[in-house]
């Protein structure tokens, strides 16, 4: 079905402009251009607040010039306004300071000395370019400019600039916002009064939304604040409706899937296990257990997310679910994000089960099973055994990394897949494991210590049921955290090492975590401490993050009499294993490690963690790391070391981590400081997201309403045959990255 929206831009704009849109923004059709919404609006006569800018943004701002200077780059001679023409062929830099009335922004122009006479103090202008940081000052690098009160304009220009609100588009130097604005005006003017709307009429009426034609006009050329709000509301709803329609369709498919019911069996392995548990289950653990058993008993696959604070005891819950499946003659797979963690899980489960995991062995219990381990670095023989055990069904539980996902790995009867620390696992990988059990889909339990707000879970995971463990097991010690500003207070860093020594003196152990390994020759020679600043082009290069190797060298002197060892991802598997075992056995005092220890590692005697260059880690990651201490009766201590100055924004993040151990609170802070794409986990892709205006964090009401409408639509017309425009936009969303995961799970 062809509509006006599918027409090529080159039918409306010059061939050159159309090509620039295609090259720079991958925009080729009328519809794509019209859905390139303004990022902000400039109210006539107002300046854009600079404090909303973020480094890396392609931003358009309006500001008033405060100061302008120019100098020759070679001779460093200051250029005077009268001399500008003399320098027109020289390498020059013109620096302009503009203000929004409160904050300043620095602009750097190369080889444009004449700007000295154009951008005189008091001039108001639009500037656009990439936001960068240079010596702690925000800059726009080589920006484009448009002087606002310029004379000699065409009538169309005068009209354009006289509008009460000017749209500011996500733009680049090659495609300034003014060009986008002009092009959109041309395209809009040529559009029919009525265009096909993907949002069905009945939904527009129910939700009191603007129709598409009206909304496009108002989003691009608003006359009032209300126009902007109404139009954005409509497009947000549309985005939510598309996602929720996809999810509703998937729910319909899932409801049709079948799974082998695995009801709880009395007097079997699970009961044996429960009887020998060395502790009482917490109330939460018991409750979640019941929820899971109920799910497992149904003839449809379970899709459950188990979220619980670090240390809340998710492993036991998962193990009980796995045993229940084994009791039904099925198998369970536990997928871990790293090798270290897989090995650790295998050990923990084996220990917890004791002789219940010694099937066929001397001394094994009567009703026993076997736990297999399958990771990438097993030798050929162990690998063969593990694969045989999985394929024959001898192993009731198989623990592994992504190696479990390989095609060669077969299961006799895979009934349950447990995914630990979901944020490290792609949806495709989960799907690959699901594919291993023939026409019956396995039950799936996803565990995470990073709590996910309800709307995000609803959007990203479609319809996972969510269980939450809120209590920590009794007897857990509190963790005390502090930020150590190493540059401002070098003495505090000294004190930190003294604390480590004291803790070891009391018989405890410590982790020192670094953001980088640093075992390659080049980086091993990194200068320490100082920022490497280069003036050219206004680039600031921060020094590389501190490495395990550097810290190891330094601590060899400071903690010379302690048993200090290192652990990182590039050590051979046996060595990693050996180091972890020695640490667990108390034969190592201080372990200098990368984030390989981030999740799951459980050594209750470890009391202290020093995180170096803590600002290089995300909030959730710091919280996760910190969860490695305070796991036993020993109170935990976490020191967040940073070179940042107190008062900077990133320092504030560290302060937040230090001031609360509430993972839900921290997750909220973390998500709020990220961009939408990151929330959905697709930031790195660079592909276009189908969410442009909708915020899965803020727009809960819209998402709920859209879900309601989508469920109704799909309920009566699952194939959307009555809603061709909606179907078309759903299809195109499915091709974009944001929703790619939705197709698979
Ligand atoms: P996480 O939820 O972070 O994965 P774990 O499952 O690793 O936490 O549990 C952390 C520690 O708490 C483990 O040593 C585990 O044996 C212990 N644990 C779990 N449940 C309880 C309980 N109900 N009472 C006491 N200790 C428990
Ligand atoms: Mg865990």
TrEMBL record:
**InterPro entries in the record:** DEAD/DEAH_box_helicase_dom (IPR011545), Helicase_ATP-bd (IPR014001), Helicase_C-like (IPR001650), NA-bd_OB-fold (IPR012340), P-loop_NTPase (IPR027417), RecG/Mfd (IPR047112), RecG_dom3_C (IPR045562), RecG_wedge (IPR033454)
PROSITE patterns from the entry?
Answer: HELICASE_ATP_BIND_1, HELICASE_CTER
**Which CDD domains does the record associate with it?**
DEXHc_RecG, RecG_wedge_OBF
Q: Where is the Helicase ATP-binding domain?
A: 295-469
List, alphabetically, the SUPFAM superfamilies matched: Nucleic acid-binding proteins, P-loop containing nucleoside triphosphate hydrolases
What does the UniProt keyword field contain?
Answer: ATP-binding, DNA damage, DNA repair, DNA-binding, Helicase, Hydrolase, Nucleotide-binding
What range(s) does the Helicase C-terminal domain occupy? Answer: 520-677
Could you give a single Gene Ontology term from the biological process aspect? DNA repair
Q: Name one GO molecular function term.
A: DNA binding
NCBIfam families, alphabetized: PRK10917.2-1
What is the protein name stated in its UniProt record?
Answer: Probable DNA 3'-5' helicase RecG
Gene for this chain:
recG
